[in-house]
Amino acid sequence: MSEQTREPTISQMPPGPATQLAQVRTRRLRSPNWITVGQVMVTLALCAFLIVPMLMSVMAGLTVNYFRGISSGLTLRWVSNVLETYGDSVLTSLYVAAATLALVLLTGVPAGYALARSRTRLSRLIEEMLVLPIALPGLATALGLLAIYGGFSAFRNSLWFIVVGHFVFTLPFMVRSVAAICASIDLRTLEEGAASLGARFSQRFFTIVLPNAWPGILAGALTVVTLSLGEFNLTWMLHTPDTKTLPVGLADAYASMRIEIGSAYTIVFFAITIPLLIGMQLLGIDPGGNLDPQRLQRKHAKRRARESANAGANAAASIDAANNASASALPDNPL
Amino acid sequence: MKLDSIPVTLRQCGKSFRGQRVLQPLDLNIGAGETLVLLGPSGCGKTTTLRMIAGLEKPDAGGTVLFGDEDVTARPIEQRQVGTVFQSYALFPNLNVRGNIAYGLRIKKTDPATMRQRVGELLELMELEAHADKPINELSGGQRQRVALARALAPQPRVLLLDEPLTALDARLRDTLRTEMNTLLRGLGITTVYVTHDQAEAMALGDRIVVMSAGRIEQIGTPRDIYYRPSNRTVAQFIGTLNRLCGEVRDGMLNTLGGAVPLNAPLPTGAATTYFRPEDATLVAPHVAQLHGVIEAAQFLGERTRLRITGAAPDTLVIDVAGHLELSRGTAVGLALRPDALLAFEIAGL
Amino acid sequence: MHDLTFPVRWRIALLAPALALFTGFWLLPIGRLIQLSGGGDALATYRAVLTNRRYLESLGATVALSVAVTLATLVLSVIVGLFLTRHSFPAKRVLLALLTFPLAFPGVVVGFMVIMLAGRQGLIGALTMALTGNKWVFAYSMTGLFAGYLYFSIPRVIITVMAAAGKLDASLEEAARSLGASPWQIMRDVVLPALAPALTAAAAVCFATSMGAFGTAFTLATDIDVLPMTIYTEFTLNANMVTAAVLSLLLGAVTWAVLALARNLTGQAAAAAA
């Protein structure tokens, strides 16, 4: 594996906020020492461990006969077989994810905003409480739901039973994501500004709060959908033969079908989730559902630097860049 | 652009926060069209007072806020028609410059033609035409400040409130903008309340200054009043530099370490502490000097040299002289004070 | 501070929907579960469960597995995470993307990956067959389960390590080097202590996830007996709601306790660090 490394030099480290961004210095590869060799080998082994099975399963789903390997030819018949047999599980998963997302958006976005704006002990307690469904195993949630609602057969046998399970499990991710972005942009001062211009609460919420919280909402939404599509623990306990989601179908296929079908089914799963994951990575959303705040700052700093270079105002711009970068760190109004 | 202005009155407005009193009940009468500056160190209550006028804080029971003859105490900020410029500007990141300035008009459902005209006026007034369609994050600090002002003025408020609007900018920019701000406020003629901790800003911009400290008003007066006739030591020490002169009062003179200074106002005989400003003392020839001392340090600051003189009084005295004078450490010097330079607040024994 | 722009009635209105749904679909169910677990005589039921050998063994096996997985994950993730943070090479972003995909996999897919690697027709089986003549199949044993748990734990911890490593102040390491410290000493005295909070939080999440993992064991199950599987069998095969309730609440309590402990140790929400 060829390595391109950069030797750090002081001249490459501009002062100011840029220093914070360039914390990580890449090291020059000195003459191969055993530590680096060891690291490389462990890294390679680990990457192989994680990635090879994925590739294998994709391959297996596309070959005519797994035992004979790729020499037996490539085919799409397993995939189409899966779509015929298990097509409705895919649709079910998508419905459930969409319904979960809708519920989470309607309830989680206002809640995230409210929790970020009221930094009281009660609001912290509520946040803690909302996180519990993640901290406790999904089995407990499922058992509880069955215990209470098992008797309401219309509800219990419908898709909504599953949606509800997914809802409590994904809600904290949206709430956290929205709360994080609301906290990071000093919403209170913006709202006071809007109020001073005559905007009522509802006007402020739709013209100022939501547009500025949008990145957090998007991050939360992508996370919720990805989690819902991949949820198994809860769903397995709650499902009926009519309400099978994709992961539930996968479990069936792995247990009872030939390996090509299981692999083809896995390909379908990858096809649905991997684009979502790529989208999240491109937007800088980490798997916890949080936006990387440094990335946003970096984008702004870069754009300002470009602007000032164009305008030709150098000293003022760098000071302003520092001012703007620390704008969010300005002291609150005293009292 | 000329705006209607109304007088603002605060009666017995105090504020407690979590059991602690942060602002003693105070009375304030602000004339229509006046620029009133609230000046003081952090935590003195100036911002709280401003927020009470704005409607972002409610005064404790018994306090009233009047705009003209209207009692607005119970009215929230949305209904008070005050233009507010926050310390951090609070510009809306999701709107560009034009959008920010027009926001208040949009809320009031102003018709598009009037909106466009008003926004255009303000863009011109604030010299922001070139940046009208830019997003907020592409603006420099000074530009943002002007957008914040324009936005506050667009809906034609009755009162303008500014919370340390220049604090976030670097010193050079602050100087320039201070002058611009002064011209602007005079031109607008709107009742303005301006909060700052910078005394130069206060004196340059205020028709009257309210010096505050630890939750109470220390003094209200014109800039010259405050500077030349501070009512107590807190005010005097906050504005400008102050030299302390301790000595014995005898026969109409204050006798101290390095000489004697004639008193312009009678003080009881005995120990006394007085103060004077550096610019009220001049270097004179020793034989006509009132005080004699020795230069301990001389700091060249460009347009002036700041001298620290020992021996003339118990405390070290700070005197400014013209920059081109080169004086070295150890030189014996003589000082003469302007006739009514001495300020007395503390009289020992009383 | 009395926030006049966010009055109480709006706070309630904005929180109410979420809290209402949460109460109806989580608080009440868990409450009912707790009630059920009490059965007739709460104390007797709990004691019976806690002294049952099979359940204790299951709990023990789960804890041991989770601890082992956590430790192995930490070691591997630190090595690989640090390496990836500090070196750049072509297609690094693609590699990182691939490494983090498993985070979205349900346990069943992870189990399937393990079968791909170590099952009867697995890659490792084929390799060992070619090299030694003996096919090594371990997917359906504890080793396979261990591998599966590693599979879903490593991506999460690597991301945490890389995020924390990216925030390390390089000047501390340079200072240590200027004082003559060897790479191992730097790791021990500078890097690891600085990473400790993030690692503690990540370890807690890793442990909690392993304790509650169900899908992987389900797919690989033959006679592996981790607690989630025991709970599942009690409920579905034995219709023993009470025992299932007790065990799952126990599992939940242990998991929550570990997360709370980690949070106290690091001063931040361990779950939030996931």
Provide a short characterization of the protein structure.
Chain B has helices spanning 46-54, 97-107, 112-125, 141-153, 171-188, 199-205, 223-228, 233-238, and strands at residues 8-17, 20-30, 35-39, 64-67, 70-71, 82-85, 159-163, 191-196, 208-213, 216-221, 243-250, 253-256, 259-262, 270-276, 281-284, 291-300, 304-310, 317-322, 332-337, 343-347. Chain B is of the alpha+beta class and 350 residues long. Chain C has a single domain, classed as MetI-like fold, CATH 1.10.3720.10.
Element order of chain C: H for helix, E for strand? HHHHHHHHHHHH
- Please name the CATH architecture of chain C: Orthogonal Bundle
How many beta-strand elements of chain B?
20
Outline of chain B? elongated
The N- to C-terminal Cα distance of chain C equals 32 Å
The DSSP helix count of chain B reads: 8
How does the helix and strand content of chain B classify structurally?
alpha+beta
What is the CATH class name of chain C?
Mainly Alpha
Number of domains of chain C: 1
- Percent helix range of chain B: 10-25%
Approximately how much beta-strand content do the residues of chain B carry?
A: 25-35%
Oligomeric state of the chains in view? heterotrimer
Indicate the percent of residues in helices of chain C: over 70%
Q: Main sheet of chain B?
A: 6 strands, mixed
Average pLDDT of chain B, rounded to a whole number, is 89
Strand content of chain C: under 5%
Distance between the termini of chain B: 54 Å
The radius of gyration of chain C is: 23 Å
Identify low-pLDDT runs of chain C: 269-274
Low-confidence stretches of chain B: none
